[in-house]
Structure formats: C-alpha cells, structure tokens
Amino acid sequence: MTHWRAGPVRTGCWDGYMEEYLPSQRPYGADAVSPSPAPHPADDRLAIGYQPSAPEADILALDRLARSLAHGEERAFLSFPDHFPTVSAELAPLLALFVDHRRSPYDATPFDDATRDQETAVLRYFAALAGACLDEVDGHVSTSPRTALLHALALARRRLPDPSVYASEQAHHDVTAVCKLLGMNQVRVRTLPDGTMDPDDLRLQTRIRREAGALVVATCGTPLRGAVDDVSALQAAAAAAGRVHMHVDATAGALVAAHSTPVPAWSLAHGAHSITLSGHRLLGLPLPAAICLARREPSTPTRPATTFPATADPGNALAVLLLWTRLRSLGRGGVAALVARCQDVAAYAVEQLEAIGADPGRLPGSLAVTFARPERPVVDKWRLECFGDRAQITATGPVTHTAVDELAADLSPARRRAAA
C-alpha cells in the first residue's frame, strides 16, 4: 500500500528561501521520489517568491511587454497575424467578467445561462457559413482548434469504432497530435501539386484497409499554401472503404473559403459529417477560439445519437463572447469585405514579389503567399515563417499594401547590394 503525507518541501536556492512547510503528496518507501526543483526563471526579477511582489514593478514589466508585443515599425510581424488595434479596445471590457461553461449549450443549468444566447448566435452564424441550419447540427465553441478537433474525432469514433484516420501530407500538425492522443492509426495520403489531398491515393489507401471504414480529415486552408481539399471528391474516393466519416478541418480557411468566388467544395453542404472552424486570426481575437459542428444522427440500438453533452469538452465562455462581439461589430457584410480586402493584399503581394524576382506562389483565393526563402537578416526582421526553401506571409492583420512594399524593398537585390 502506498502511504501519503504532508511534509516539508525544500524549495532550494533558486529563490533564496530556506524551508517551507507546504502541502505535498510524497509516497514512502520504494515509491518515494524527490521533489523536482522549480525551474529557474531567465530573469530573477520575474521569479515568484514567498512574499507578494511590488505591484508597481509588475505593472511596469507588463507595460514593457505589451509595448514590445505591439504592432509597429519596431516589430514587423508578417507570418502570424497581430491583432487589429481597434479590436483590443473593443474586447477589453470582457476581461472584467467571470464567465464559465460547465456543460454544453444544450444543457439547462443555472450556472451557464449568461452566455448561452450568444453561443447560439455564434453557432448559427458558423452553421450557415458551413451550409447547414442550426437545427441540423450540434455544436459548441471550444478553447482552441486542437481541442475542437479532438472533440470532433472522438465523436467520429463513436460512429466508426476502430477507423484509420486519413489525412493529407499537408494537413495541420494538430491532426497527428490528436490521433496520438486518441490512439488512432493515421494514414498519410499524398497531395496533388496544388497541395490538396489526392483522391486517387485516398481510394487506394482506403481499399487496403476497407474493413474498419474510413475517417477522412479534409483540410480547408493547409498551413503552407492555404489549399482547400475537395470534400465531395474525397468522399466519393473513400466510398470503397464502406462506412465513411468525412471531417473537415477548416479552422484556418473557413471564413476565406465561404467568401471566395467560386466557393470551393469544403463544407457540410458538400457532404461533410463534421467540421471544425475558426477565425480568430482573421478576426484579430486576442486568444484562440474554435467551433465544432456535427450533423445530428438518430440513435439506434447499436449506436448512440451524435450529441455533445456526453463529451468532455465543456466549451469556453470567454471565446464565445469574443467571437460574438467581433462578429457583431463586423456583420456578415463586414466579414465578407474583410476577406475581400485581405485577398486583394495577397494578390498585390504576388505582383510586388514577382517584380523583384522572389518567385512568389499563391493559390486562387488564398491569403497565404509563399516565396523564395530570403537571407537570415530579412527572416529575422520580419519574423517570417519558413518551410524548407520557402517563406510565407499571410495577408491578415498587419499585412497591408504598405507592409508588402517594405518587405519587397528588403527583398530587392538592389536594396541588398546597397546595404552591403
């Protein structure tokens, strides 16, 4: 039997204190382990000590951090979008609220009523965006794209008890992480030259493993190029596997795909059974937020209904309010105009980078623009995300026409020679 006790814990010299009597759970005997020392902060001024810190000093430190993270000439940032300046002031009052979700938006509880109507409005917006009515799907707002994807694949496994997960080579790394967490076998499917999943290779892969059915994860907005898989074509290709659950990871590209012309085959309207969506980067939210939607299915003697209350993800009330506030401030027309402006900037970036010989690439409608990887000083200055010999910018937030001009100037051979 393992015995537990509360005893003295030596904090070590990291913080300058001797010995404190703090609660611990340390077993005696063979199971005993020494307490791990606390990590030493890079800056001793940031260490969490026994006594309270001076509020004034911490406020100054946070102020310095905020100014260093603020978008401006001293902080070029074109790989991951910074927040729009107006968004911070618009959403700041929400940080003064305490809101919590303990259950799904479909459960009646006295604790969660405050944001249920807002969550319903957000779900209705994204359900319509994905080609469904809210009464056709169950859904919730989640804390992050990965959590939403975890939830969606767990639901899919209820329909197909032991499926392999088929995702393209260009799928987001969250797919691999979630498959490992759920203990699901992942099969990588080849991609076509445009970065989309190859239906012919999917057909071949599913035939090899046809007994268990197929859980296909299509991608709407691949990390490198923003490619959008053809959901209809992939569903037809996987039909040889028998039962198929088609999930779409659209957390990177839902808003763009829905407002593109022509609209790609990416959503519930094109045959998907479930979908995860987001828009926190494009909308400029200060933290991640995602939506998970799944088509409702009637229960049978051998299969429970696909519902959200029986799952582990309770959602996120702050994310609900952030999404609702931002979408209300833009309206459906404003979101469409925002996407159009970003697509215009992306097209402009291709023109400017092509003029200086940077070998740009962009798929139709995508906000992602790739180009030949520049020298290290340019990568560091603009904090570019690089994939092998390619660098990338995403035309949201700080990526304006002016920013593109400045980046092109730094990439220009004449400018580089002059600087040398």
Structure explained in plain terms:
With 420 residues, the chain is an alpha/beta fold. It folds into two domains: 94-329, Aspartate Aminotransferase, domain 2, CATH 3.40.640; 331-419, Aspartate Aminotransferase, domain 1 (Alpha-Beta Complex). It has 13 helices and 14 strands. It has helices spanning 55-69, 85-91, 113-129, 145-159, 173-182, 199-208, 231-238, 254-258, 280-283, 317-355, 376-382, 401-411, 413-419, and strands at residues 4-5, 8-10, 19-21, 26-27, 137-142, 164-168, 186-189, 214-219, 244-250, 274-278, 290-295, 368-372, 385-387, 390-394. The chain has a seven-stranded mixed beta sheet, sandwiched between helices. A three-stranded antiparallel beta sheet has the order 12-14-13, with helices on one face. Strand 6 (164-168), helix 5 (173-182) and strand 7 (186-189) form a beta-alpha-beta unit. Helix 4 (145-159) crosses helix 5 (173-182), helix 6 packs parallel to helix 7 (231-238) and helix 10 (317-355) crosses helix 12 (401-411). The chain is globular and about 60 Å long.
